[in-house]
């Protein structure tokens, strides 16, 4: 664009790299000279538009250079720009800076295409290792705009979104695959907001943050993906916390119980066998505890007791009995 404009490099011994950069459309010298060129032409009124389009061209060229440097992929500029245009034309989730309810700056994902029908926007996490857990819990913090507060909004506006997961043994999702729409996701729930906001307050005073916790299982593969589907809401996803529950290691009834994962269902009870502490032995039945779905120990069965010649000391410790002090008579 505007190839007839040439820069005048008056700086002595300027590095070749800088000179080459400045003689291209992405150089600042080109921009400065374009402004001077169109400003001195009294009869020309189109120079602001010309400068604006050259700025767009400069940004696109720099984006192409950065893309190749960051990815190592060699791609024709025209192909890169076509792909970029297709991405920009699609409605999707956007990562933006925002504020939480305490006015802390955070990075969020948001979507608000309420004026366009038939929305189907997906947000996918990276692969998450389940680390041996059979049941996974997900805490979702989000905000939703009240549809009735948006002027002239169509009836397709929603105040809910869908939450899915996909279990797999390997990392399979990339931008170049069709995984986004074709994977056999399992739906966890349709998430609705307990509170929605009707005004946009940039100070965050009117932000109403919702927190919902959902769980799914049983899981048996190495890991999973989480997916969030928007189909017409105006919302922000503030944070997603993924966790599992477990019963901590404990010493009880003179026995040691190892850290134990909770079961596949929230009502499951997982049996944990105990090991008697040193210098102790089981009494009657094998000792065990049950780990419930909330990560709490319950229903102790059996116990251990100190072996002969030992006594309990300081709770769950068996120590050798101390000999009684001898009694010596001064009259005997």
Automatic annotation (TrEMBL):
SMART domains: EPH_lbd
GO biological process: axon guidance
Molecular function, one GO term: transmembrane-ephrin receptor activity
Keyword Ribonucleoprotein: no
Domain Eph LBD: 65-252
Membrane-crossing segments per the record: none
Known EC number: 2.7.10.1
Keyword Transmembrane: yes
Identification of the protein by name: receptor protein-tyrosine kinase
